[in-house]
Model the fold of this input.
Amino acid sequence: MNESTNEQIDEILMNKEADQLQKRKARFARGLVRSAETTLAELEENPDLPESMHYFINIMREVFVKDRAHRLLLPSQNQSANNRKIIGTYCLMVPEELIYAAGATPVRLCGGNYEASLAGDELVPRDTCPVVKASIGFTSLNLMSLYQMCDAVIVPTTCDAKRKMGEELSKFTEVWMLEVPHIKDSEGSRRQWLQQLYALKNNIEKFTGKSFIRRKIRRKALDASIKMIGSAQYQARRLYDIRKSSAAIISGRDAMFAINAYSYDTAFKWTKAMTRLNDELEVRCHKGQFICSEHTPRILIAGSPPIFPNWKIPSLIEEMGAVIVADESCMGNRYLYDPIGLTEKSVTDMMVGIAARYIMPCVCPSFAPNEDRLFRLLQMAEEFSIDGIIYHVLKGCVIYDFELIRVEKIMKGKNIPVLRIETDYSPEDIEQLRTRIEAFVEMLGIRKER
Amino acid sequence: MTVTNLRWMALIISFLVLILGGLIGLDLGGFLPVYACPYVGQTRGGVCFLFRLQFILGVGSWEAFKALGEHLLYFSILVVLIGRAWCGWICPFGFLQDVLDLIRRKLHIGYIRFPERLRANLRCIKWIFFFIALLIPLWVAYPLLAPSVAGDLRQPFCQLCPGKYILPLIIGNPDSVAVDFKSATTITMTILGLTFSTIAIIGALLKRRFWCPYCPMGLLLSWYKKISFIKLKKDCQKCTMCEVCYNVCPVEIQQVFKERENEDVTFTDCTLCLRCVEYCPEDGALRATFLGKTIYKSTSKGFFSRQHIIPGVTDDQVIR
Ligand code: SF4
Ligand code: SF4
Ligand code: SF4
Ligand code: SF4
Done:
């Protein structure tokens, strides 16, 4: 065989491969749109849906169904706005304040889609959790423009899977690893974390500058972005407080969804929408417009985060007649709970405050020891008058599963039942989960009657 | 009115009373647990306990010791009453440090924080000062050895104390900031004192409440923390370990946020300034009590108003 035929064969093969890839990608993309739209439609069907929820639903639709994330993140048509850098983040240890202060926009990329997790399947070991699979799937296949839009991606070294994910992602995009200490108590690790943040600040400054000129993060800009995110946190806390009422005013599905939408929106716009939602809910509260009675079992979702569009567990729980009043996930209550406390406006104090906020109160199980989480759960169980806990374990998420034993033990002391649910993003086990959740909710109902 | 403003008011009024009160004939006695330094001269409104302590020990007679007992009693009553709130709310030298701190803040210069190791190593300084104030006066009273040196060592800690040099200077009395050439002993002591004063001033510009961790008066006051009426308390379950209270604390007390078991979080260096309570973002995680009754507690709303995120919530609504 001569050389030219060889090349021809190679070319044909390559075309064929590319073709197959295209087909696969199209199939996944269709699946993604379908599953996202189904969840959104379900939310919209809810007769109790607060008016102001449509804003958040719209955000998710733009991102997942219409694939127009640029409209949210780069709203203005003028040139300077479109020069704005977009920086993708994972987990919640990446200080968005620094990104905003540099004139860039952060967007949180943790993936929650089944099709994307299938796409990522062959790039990672089988036992990897679906969050990582989906995130890699989204990036590698370019399933959504959102992932392509990011000029850089920051991956904190939290759990093993996320850490290795950073390495894998760097095949497709510019990745900056952010080293998060795993022991919070030691002074050394905290000092090192602060240094990491100063380095990150430097990186961002270089990245957002023009050619060789750094774009310095100014004191005032940093202060303003801390305040902006502080306002978002204040609103998130308001929602949190509203959910404490003895008869629920908003369903957990909706509340978690609204918080989740923060990932894809700019903090400023999100805060405005959240303020509207809170105002509306407060009016409902005054009017006594509850979505369920005081006897409805109140559930706390603990464990791995449910991430949109994987709304499987929240939907099932509420379909079975319980109400989710709180969750402790990094996509839900914990996402925007802990604020930055400042007493002065020096950059030093702001950096110290930022460093503290992103690890000290964080009860992610990638920290050890993580006693704080148990205290937090006890406090939540009390504040939200929790009747039962559904402990969500995403298949492959070892660290959350590890802490189950401790959680079960302390909750036993408080006489609060815990149900462990292990699942991934696939819809296959829904029927089986439904039966288990139904039984659990029923049991809680009976206990509550007594 | 926020607690910070209230505290500023208390500090300013106390400063005026203690340093200038003499002008209107005030005399609050010689057992005050703060730097009410008599070296400011006629205008003083009271006398620092350390001065009296050293003076009386230096006299060394039986009568003197009886007087000391009496002073100690009054001193103890004052300290039991409000604990180290004397430091956070009244001490003129504390006020001075807070003013320097305010200047630093207004210039947007960051503060320095010492590593834990260093802080632990420096802890001995206040003990050294304390023993200087306690033992040398006895030597002065019974100068068995080198009597000429002892004779020049009256009020030995005062010769080292920045209060002696800085406070008179503030009210426009520059005589204090001079080396005393009377003898080799006085020269050494005044030079040391001036050095400490310079360090204290520069230190207070760079580090919050720089001097307080080394102050022997603070050490004396801290011994009453278990029995004093004002206490700092924490609800460990409500605390999220967010570290805010540590970052806002002028004397950088870590234990408040690390505490996981005990309710009482009044630690040795705590000046009861209540800044941690003001800035704690969790409802009821921290509170100050007087004789067991809550007088002030942390709130989420208060936190956000202090961060200027929501319009001001005054502490009157919180104090109860
Ligand atoms: S010099 Fe210092 S210790 Fe002596 S009286 Fe003055 S303030 Fe008190
Ligand atoms: S510790 Fe500070 S505030 Fe207290 S007496 Fe000493 S100098 Fe004054
Ligand atoms: S622990 Fe609190 S009250 Fe005590 S000095 Fe620190 S901030 Fe002030
Ligand atoms: S500020 Fe409050 S919640 Fe935060 S660590 Fe201190 S006591 Fe705990």
Observations:
- The two ends of chain B are 14 Å apart (CA to CA).
- Chain B touches chain A through 34 residues (CB under 8 Å).
- The beta strands of chain B are 230-234, 286-290, 293-297.
- The longest helix of chain B spans residues 184-206.
